[in-house]
Amino acid sequence: MATVETPRTEVRAEAKYVRTAPRKAQLVAEQIRGRTVPEARTILAFMARDAARDMEKVLNSAVANAEANHGLVGDELIVSAAYAGAGPTLKRWRARARGRVARIRKRTCHITIRLARADGSDLPEARAPLAATVAPEAPAEGTEKPKRARKKPEVAETTEAPAAEEKPKARPKRAAKPKAEADEAPAEKPKRAPRKKKTDEGEGS
Predict the structure, then answer these.
(1) Is this model's pTM higher than 0.90 or not?
(2) Looking at residue 43, what DSSP letter applies?
(3) Rounded distance, CA 15 to CA 28, Å?
(4) 163: pLDDT confidence band, cut at 50, 70 and 90?
(5) What is the pLDDT of residues 183-203, one digit of tens each?
(6) CA 12 – CA 60 distance, rounded (Å)
(7) Cα–chain-centroid distance for residue 193?
(8) Is-contact 79 63, C-beta < 8 A?
(9) Domain count within the chain
(10) 37-45 and 51-70 helices cross at what angle (nearest 10)?
(11) CA distances to 24, 77, 183, 195 from 203, in Å
(12) What is the pLDDT of residue 205?
């Protein structure tokens, strides 16, 4: 069956896994839904909620998509849809009394913003990428690029025979030390004379 392509009427931008609770992001999305792009930017700039900073980034991305891909003017568009869906929840815990723990849930969300024309007309066709439109020029038939000749290194021709390599001179051997004769006996040390014992004089009889 042949598929019929329906014309696009909206430009979309999406941010996934934003570290904001979907309930808090949804409160911000309700404030800009149905407004023009300049009004939505003004509301987000003066809103005190942290989710407004993430919503503003997604809005700027959607405006950039409309201007770059379809050649539209961002200030002439309106926010046709803005919503935040629930993402995966990160599980954490905190130590409490008596060895117990308290559960912490860190919520994430997926923010989506759609832009459309104020009159509801279709968007122009998306522009082709620049690399696809500019094709490289093909060389004319019968013309080939001249190949560069590689130059060989010039070697000077010499007729003289190479000189014989001189071998290093051997070091003279050291004279061997004369060994002590085995027959000679070691000299004996003189013995000391025995000490005389002292006698106690004047001992009583």
Answers:
(1) no
(2) H
(3) 15
(4) low
(5) 555 566 667 777 776 666 555
(6) 11
(7) 92
(8) no
(9) 1
(10) 150
(11) 119, 137, 57, 22
(12) 45
